[in-house]
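User: Can you predict the 3D structure for this chain?
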Amino acid sequence: MATATLSASGAASCIFIILAATTMSMATSYSYARETSSRSCIAAERAALLSFKTSMTSDLAKRLDSWRGHHCCQWSGVTCNNRTGQVVKLSLRNAFIKEDKKIVWCMPHGESGGLEGKISSSLLALQHLKHLDLSGNNLGGVGVTIPKFLGSIKSLTYLNLACMNFDGGVPPQLGNLSRLLHLNLEASVFSDTLLHSDDISWLSRLGLLRSLDMSGVNLSTIPDWVRVVTIVPSLEVLQLSQCGLSLQHEPIVHSNLSSLQVLDLYSNRIDTLNPTYWFWDVLIIKELDLSSNKIVGQLPDAIGNMTSLQTLRLGGNYLSGVKSELFKNLCNLSWLELWSNEINQDMSDFMEGFPACTKSKLWSLDLSATNLTGRIPSSIKQWKNLSDLQLSDNRLVGSIPLGLGKMTNLRSLILNNNQLNGSVSEEHFASLVYLMELSLSHNPVHITISSNWIPAFNLEVAHFASTKMGPHFPLWLKGQKDIWDLDISDTGIVDLVPVWFWTVFSNVSYVNISCNQISGRLPATLEFMTSAQMLDLNSNDFTGLLPLLPESLLFLDISRNSLSGPLPQDFGATMLRERVLFANHINGTIPIYVCQLQYMEVLDLSENLLVGQLPQCSKGRDDKEELNTTVDPGNRLLSALILHNNNLSGKFPEFCNTVHF
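Assistant: Here is the predicted structure, written as structure tokens:
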């Protein structure tokens, strides 16, 4: 008993000591946390950051508004070492950049809303900076190169300068960043600037590099680029899309890229795939993108050895005789693109060539424009994991199998431009609750969906052009409020446009209901379709006045209708490029407002009842006051002005001298 008492007493003492120690530790941690959070950053580094801010000429998103006061470690985008207070990370990536497994979108100059200005050399004072991300900000411009001094921030392990509008050559000084693990220099190919390099030998000095993206950088003058990149042993991700690259016909057989998992050579000048190319032997590659090149001939059998492949993109080439048996060992494959190559096979036979393991893994399959023939096999329902199925632009015949309606993971079903026939009913979509994109256009199928059917899905893209959908307006569309791209042109609809149509699709970007016999009036609220960019309503029976148009509209075709009355004095849609109104009953004069449409390329008012003279749209001294805001004629884009079969008089405006009539 005594022993037990002593043990309990000892245990109590131990518990007391542990609690005391824990309390002291918590107090110390709390005290340190307070000290760290209240500590201002290093004065020299704060000054360097403020100098960087001063070099900015625009900050529309107010990313740097918090950059004030002494506590720079609390500024937006700045991260400091908790112990030393030194700046170790500066991340000011523009929020517009959208990254996924396929692409990073670079916005054109002036549309990104990011920072504008120049990169200050004051960043050299951040001697412990490891992570620098300025991607998506317009800190370049014509004649502005990537700053050479960035190669002197030798503590960097991460450098992202993607989509920054730089010009000129890539500085070899970046090869001094020997600690670098990730380097992204991606450039936009839709820019006034051109980032290029004639020598990438500096990459060989980046022995620790794991990820390299130079997509969009012109490397076309470097014949031995393969030799350079293949001596960087640690590379796991190599992205060189749209670089103007080609592969030599006498390839390097071996490389040091034993760690490579992602190889992106999209949209280059590659024209052959020799079976001995170095990447066929990198057995751990998970993603291989050779799409949109100029590859001819047959796909090498070596593809079957790449058993780790999860994503394979070969679309947009000139491959012939592609056989599914080549993929028999690719049991990890989840994404396969073969579009615009020559399969030249019955679809049933082609699909049967895949191994069972692929049928359970694959979730994206694009066989568009591959010269597939025959029917869509009923066994397609076995591919239950498919989310994206694209079979457009082939020679497929017969009816659409009901088994498609049981592929519960389908989000995108693209079957347009085939020879499919038969009926399409709600049963075809019974279990497709995730369906977002549906295209059946240009197939002679009958859409026999009940008017009171309520779909389980919410479409974003709906294409039914040149199918047999009429004569009644498809009422099941009433619940599809997420659609931004709608095409029901030439579908045999002979009906009054329902009132709900303009409300349900008020957020749509593209609408095509042309070549039907749809009647009714255009709503006065048309201007409130604030996302609309294209409205094609031609060859119907719309009546009444032309209302004010959406400000975002770029293309309008309402020709071959029965519109009447005068044109509005203010059209709206100041960005409109094509306005096609021929073959209506529009009367009155052409309003002077057309003089303000700077971006107008095509204006077709022919075959109407217009009278009077054309506005001269000049800026001479004797012009009327209301013309003072007109566009400089030298800046006009107008290339086609079509006015025949009216009752117009007078002379053409001077700016029309180069216009086609």
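Residues 1-38, 98-103, 620-634 have pLDDT under 50 and may be disordered. The CA atoms of residues 178 and 206 lie 5 Å apart.
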